[in-house]
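Structure first, sequence second, as always.
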């Protein structure tokens, strides 16, 4: 994968803020900075990172231009809302040029798919090493996968829906099952 220095900065900035938002909303500022930030960085943050890198990797495989850009205003709003206990994030996205509608649908599919694969990895780790860390990683990535499949713009689900209804229903069904299962842990 090819990255510009600006893109690396944008990804790191969004990754840190996503992790802070989940940490602050979950346990408050003091505990978030001391305890929750590393956990969120490695669960919610990794889910965010792998989601965006999946889009970028596939777009570049299709020989498209693809770069991540953070949405600074949305990151700030998300950070402020986290102090009220809410997680509402639109951290940015991979901007793509040169993709056909089908390619764009497949690229969009890759992000939620990656979240579901990360969720399953955390579920497997939780099965073997039962811990709050792995359980949380499973929950948050199942949520991210399902949330990104909402079939309206600007969510990935919209592009997947336009590209292939069968692919949309398949991944949405898996996402719903994993999301429901995550509530049982």
């Amino acid at each position: 994968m090819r990255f510009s220095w600006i893109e690396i900065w944008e990804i790191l900035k969004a990754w840190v803020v996503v992790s802070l938002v989940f940490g602050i909303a979950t346990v408050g500022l003091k505990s978030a900075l001391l305890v929750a930030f590393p956990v969120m960085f490695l669960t919610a943050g990794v889910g965010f990172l792998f989601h965006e890198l999946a889009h970028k990797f596939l777009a570049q495989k299709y020989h498209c231009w693809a770069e991540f850009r953070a949405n600074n205003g949305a990151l700030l709003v998300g950070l402020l809302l986290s102090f009220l206990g809410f997680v509402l994030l639109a951290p940015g996205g991979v901007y793509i040029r040169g993709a056909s509608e089908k390619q764009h649908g497949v690229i969009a599919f890759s992000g939620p798919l990656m979240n579901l694969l990360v969720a399953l990895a955390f579920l497997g780790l939780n099965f073997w090493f039962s811990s709050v860390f792995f359980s949380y990683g499973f929950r948050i990535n199942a949520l991210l996968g399902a949330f990104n499949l909402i079939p309206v713009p600007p969510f990935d689900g919209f592009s997947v829906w336009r590209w292939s209804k069968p692919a949309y229903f398949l991944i949405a069904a898996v996402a719903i099952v994993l999301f429901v299962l995550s509530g049982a842990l």
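Margin note: The two ends are 36 Å apart (CA to CA).
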